[in-house]
Design a protein that fits this description.
Elements (H helix, E strand, L loop, with lengths): L1 H25 L4 H4 L21 E5 L41 H10 L12 E3 L8 E3 L4 H8 L9 H14 L2 H6 L4 E4 L17 E4 L15 E2 L17 H4 L2 E7 L9 H9 L5 E5 L4 H12 L1 E7 L8 H7 L3 E5 L18 E3 L1 H4 L4 H7 L3 H14 L14 H25 L8
Parallel strand pairs: 1-2, 1-3, 3-4, 4-5, 5-6, 7-8, 7-9, 9-10, 10-11
C-alpha cells in the first residue's frame, strides 16, 4: 500500500508540471490572472510619469490693489478685494510690459478656484489660514510698477519707490515675516530693475527672477527661482511639416536691438560678423506688434534662432524661439535657465561661450555641421516641452505657472531648515 501511494505521488509530481507547461505553450492558460494575480504589476507602462505629491500650500497677502492690479487698471477700486471674478484680464497688446508679467500669472493662479483645464491638480493652492502655509506669496507687481512709473533711471522720489517702501513696511509689520525673517516668502522680481530701491531688505526671500544679471550680489540659485519670460510671438500650433528641416530654409535668425549694455555688447560685434552671411538673417529692429509678427514668420522658417545676451544674460527671444520650435543658439557665459532641475536644455539648444561666438567663422561652421538627424531630434524635443513655457488663465497642467510653483516647492525643505536653525541658534551661522 505505501509503495502504491509513493508511486502515485511521484506520477502526479511529474504529470502536473508537464500538463501546466503544455497549457502555457498552447496559450490556453492565463498564468498572469490565475496564478500571479497577487503580484503587483511593476511594468513601466502602468507607472505614472510623476508619482505626484500634495500641492504647495500658499498663503497670499491681501494687499491694496494699488500694489498690483491697480497698475493694470487704474480705475480698479483701491478698497476692493481682488477675486477670481474681478481680476482684470491681462492686455496682450501691452508690448514690453508683457515680458515681465510673471507676477500677474502667479497671482491669478492662486485666485482661480477650480482645477486646471486638463482636470489635473495644480502645483500650488491658496490657503486662508497662514498657519497651514508652506510659503507666503507677496503679490506686489514690482516689474509693472517700474514699467508704469519710471521713465528715466535717474528719477528720484518716484511713485515706484514709494510703493516699494509701502510694501517693505507691510512685510516688516507682519508676524509671519518676523517669524521666518522673510525666508518662506515668495516675491516676484522678474524685471532686472524691479524692487531696486529696497531689494536688499527682503533678500532672504525666494525671488522669482528672469536671471541674476543685476542682482548677483544678493540673489542665489540655491534659494531663488528662474522664471521664463512670457513669449512675445504667437505659439506655433500647426508645425507638422513632412520635412521640417528642408522647409526651414534660413540657417540662423536674429532680429532685435543690436546696441545693448554689459554682456549685451556682443550683439553689435555679432552683427559685424554675421550680417550678409549666406542663409543668415541678422536684423536691427525695435519692439512693435508688426515686428513680433515678422519675427514669428522668420523663426518658423529658420533652423536655428540666435539668443545673445541683452542688457542682462536672458531675454524673451529664447522663449519666442522655443514656442516657434526653432532650435535656440544661446551665447552667454552667465545665463541661468528656468526649470533646469527638470529640463536638460542641451537636448534642444546649442550653447556657445562669448569667446567661441566671436571667433571668426566658428559659430556658423558649427551650425552648418549639425547633421539633419540631430536637428530633427532637437526640433522634436522642443515640440514636446514648449507647453512648459505657456502662461494662461485658467492654468493648465505643466504650464509655465505650474512649473514655477513646482520649482518653489523644491525650495521648501531648505527654507524650513534655515527657519528652524535661525530660531534656536545663539550665534547665527557660526560655522562659516
Amino acid at each position: 500500500m505505501p509503495k502504491s501511494i509513493n508511486r502515485t505521488i511521484i506520477c502526479l509530481s511529474i504529470c502536473i508540471p508537464l500538463l501546466v507547461g503544455s497549457l502555457l505553450l498552447a496559450g490556453t492558460l492565463d498564468y498572469r490572472s490565475r496564478f500571479l494575480s497577487f503580484i503587483p504589476n511593476f511594468s513601466k507602462s502602468t507607472l505614472p510619469c510623476r508619482t505626484g505629491s500634495p500641492p504647495l500650500r500658499v498663503y497670499m497677502y491681501d494687499l491694496p490693489p494699488r500694489l498690483n492690479v491697480g497698475l493694470i487698471d487704474p480705475s480698479f477700486p483701491d478698497g476692493t478685494p481682488v477675486t477670481a471674478k474681478n481680476i482684470p484680464a491681462w492686455r496682450w497688446n501691452d508690448g514690453l510690459r508683457k515680458q515681465h508679467s510673471v507676477e500677474y500669472w502667479l497671482m491669478a493662479s492662486l485666485l482661480y478656484e477650480g482645477n486646471d483645464e486638463s482636470g489635473s491638480s495644480r502645483e500650488a493652492v491658496r490657503v486662508g489660514d497662514p498657519e497651514y502655509a508652506d510659503v507666503f506669496f507677496v503679490p506686489f507687481f514690482s516689474s509693472l510698477s517700474f514699467n508704469v512709473h519710471v521713465r528715466h533711471m535717474a528719477e528720484v522720489n518716484t511713485v515706484d519707490e514709494k510703493l516699494q517702501l509701502e510694501m517693505v513696511n507691510i512685510l516688516k509689520a507682519s508676524d509671519y515675516w518676523k517669524r521666518s525673517g522673510g525666508r518662506d516668502h515668495v516675491i516676484p522680481m522678474h524685471h532686472p530693475n524691479a524692487f531696486r530701491h529696497y531689494r536688499d531688505e527682503v533678500n532672504a526671500s525666494i525671488f522669482i527672477v528672469a536671471d541674476f544679471g543685476r542682482i548677483m550680489n544678493i540673489s542665489r540659485l540655491a534659494k531663488d527661482v528662474v522664471g521664463p519670460y512670457p513669449h512675445m510671438v504667437e505659439s506655433y500650433i500647426s508645425d507638422d511639416q513632412e520635412d521640417p528641416y528642408k522647409s526651414r530654409e534660413t540657417l540662423l535668425f536674429f532680429r532685435g536691438r543690436t546696441k545693448r549694455k554689459d554682456e549685451g555688447i556682443i550683439r553689435a560685434q555679432l552683427y559685424k560678423m554675421l550680417n550678409g552671411t549666406k542663409d543668415v538673417i541678422y536684423e536691427e529692429a525695435f519692439a512693435s506688434e508688426e515686428g513680433f509678427k515678422a519675427s514669428a514668420e522668420q523663426m518658423r522658417s529658420s533652423k536655428f534662432c540666435l539668443h545673445p545676451a541683452g542688457d542682462t544674460p536672458s531675454s524673451c527671444r529664447l522663449f519666442d524661439a522655443i514656442v516657434s520650435h526653432c532650435v535656440p543658439v544661446i551665447i552667454s557665459d552667465r545665463i541661468e535657465l528656468p526649470y533646469e532641475s527638470e529640463i536638460d536644455y542641451k537636448e534642444f539648444s546649442i550653447f556657445f561661450s562669448v569667446n567661441e561666438a566671436l571667433k571668426p567663422g566658428y559659430l556658423i561652421n558649427e551650425l552648418r555641421g549639425v547633421p539633419k538627424e540631430k536637428w530633427i531630434k532637437m526640433w522634436s524635443r522642443i515640440k514636446n516641452i514648449s507647453h512648459h513655457f505657456e502662461f494662461q488663465y485658467p492654468p493648465k497642467s505643466e504650464d509655465a505657472v505650474n512649473m514655477i510653483w513646482r520649482q518653489v516647492k523644491h525650495k521648501v525643505p531648505s527654507v524650513k531648515l534655515a527657519v528652524h536653525r535661525s530660531r534656536r541658534l545663539k550665534i547665527p551661522d557660526w560655522w562659516r
